[in-house]
Amino acid sequence: MKLTVWTYEGPPHVGAMRVATGMKGLHYVLHAPQGDTYADLLFTMIERRDHRPPVTYTTFQARDLGSDTAGLFKRACQDAYDRFKPEAIIVGASCTAELIQDDPGGLAETMGLDIPVIPLELPSYQRKENFGADETFFQIVRHLAKPMEKTARMSCNIIGPTALGFRHRDDVQEITNLLYELGIEVNVTAPMGATPSDIAKMGQAHFNVLLYPETGEQAARYCEKKFDQPYTKVIPIGAGATYDFIAEVRSLSDSIAQIDTDRLRQTWWSRSVDSTYLTGKRVFIFGDGTHVLTAARIARDEMGFEVAGMGCYNREQARPVRALAKEFGLEALITDDYLEVERTIEALQPEMILGTQMERHIGKRLGIPCAVISAPVHVQDFPARYSPQMGFEGANVIFDTWIHPLVMGLEEHLLHMFREDFEFNDAAGPSHHGGHAPAASAGGAQAPVSDSGKMKPEVQPTGEVIWLDQAERELKKIPFFVRGKARRNTESYAADKGLQEISIDTLYEAKAHFAR
């Protein structure tokens, strides 16, 4: 564990909160000091959830450490049982409370409550949020699910969606509809929307659909072994993966029902877009392993992008991400240090970032468009509208989400056409890229000025060469969708010629060189 301004994942007890908050009839008693009681902020503000998360804290303070904190925990547990009347309780400690070693699980067992009490052992100083969610759901399934006779009709469980998950609510609806078209009933969806009584019935299903390995793979493996339930391996994000998912479900269910694909517009739309906006665009992909793996396939095979780099922050998914990166001729970046991610993006200078909220902020600072594809996310990524990532409608949503940051359409052409206008000049920056426009006067760009009053060159972060002001101004006249390539080509040309500065003549010479 380390202190940082931003973090891709919280401690593991936040993962347990995500499971508890997604379920119904389950309560989480968390042994935690006063400063760790922030669940309400996470779920009611960011996710805009209309009810408080089912979490009771012991909320001990410094003065309590010299007295009976174990008794404090038992009182909190009894109060939660009396007040909320849950079907089951999960108990655990936050990272701070773990240090005082009160053993919440053992304490709760001695209380003799007449409902299941499930202890959680979440090593806060070795593991993180996704592990916490995965382990919590696994323990709930292990304690509550029972062997049962299979349903008369072919059925499955949907495993993995949690509270605070990236588009989990809409993904569940999309995949439920798709399974219904295939003639397959959904027995239980869990954790999201399930009660402890529902978990007990998971053994009735013929197979499991694993939507998010980060939060459901342990439970899926357990059910495969315990209840003879195979689970799906394909994550249906993107048009191609959705077709593969359908084929996999058919093999598990013997379904021969036909699927209506008329609503899938992404494949035609991506083919019909002017190639200037898509083909060969260099993108950098970063997020949780599941969304990175699927995004890379969509970027290359369905959108025509060039994947310039990829990586993930959750080390549990490092192996498959490294394997896919090798297929793409890349070395995967596996890190939870956002500063390292920023340095990599700055060095690669991609034309687009597909990442998390962290990369959205990085993109703003570097002036690179970014589309969010993965948690962690902020409030704007929990839209009121139906906006899945999975299935055919998810493919449509992804197309829209990715194409818009590239500013397809008339506005950018007009900005370029009227670049000398006081309102639409290049230095003002596109209106839809707010937050990183360079300072400008009413008549155009304000060039850097030295103490002597003369223009001074700007040093660009993309290399060691210096761009002189006139060359930089001329570069900005190049349309946005080829400007990055022009910059890289010119710097490459200058490096080959041994030049330390790029003048306007160097820019034109490089243009002539690469045009041959």
Q: Tell me the radius of gyration.
A: 27 Å
CATH classification, class level of the largest domain:
Alpha Beta
CATH fold-type name of the largest domain: Rossmann fold
Number of DSSP-assigned strands = 17
Helical proportion, percent range: 40-55%
State the strand order across the main sheet: 10-9-8-11-12
Q: Characterize the main sheet.
A: 5 strands, parallel
Total DSSP helices: 20
Uncertain runs are 435-462
Taken from the alpha-carbon principal axes, the silhouette is: globular
The tally of structural domains comes to 4
Provide a descriptive summary of the structure in words.
The protein is built from 20 helices and 17 strands. With 516 residues, it is of the alpha/beta class. The termini are far apart. It is globular. The protein has helices at 12-22, 39-46, 69-84, 104-109, 129-144, 168-181, 196-200, 213-227, 239-253, 266-272, 275-278, 289-302, 318-327, 338-348, 357-366, 391-403, 410-417, 469-475, 480-497, 504-515, and strands spanning 26-31, 55-57, 88-93, 117-119, 155-159, 185-190, 207-210, 282-287, 306-312, 333-334, 352-355, 370-372, 440-441, 444-445, 458-459, 466-467, 501-502. The strands form five sheets. It has a five-stranded parallel sheet, sandwiched between helices. The protein has a four-stranded parallel sheet with strand order 2-1-3-4, with helices on both faces. A three-stranded parallel sheet has the order 6-5-7, with helices on both faces. Helix 1 (12-22) packs across helix 5 and helix 19 crosses helix 20. It has four domains: 12-136, Rossmann fold (3-Layer(aba) Sandwich); 145-252, 3-Layer(aba) Sandwich (Rossmann fold); 265-404, Rossmann fold; 466-515, Orthogonal Bundle (Helicase, Ruva Protein, domain 3), CATH 1.10.8.550.
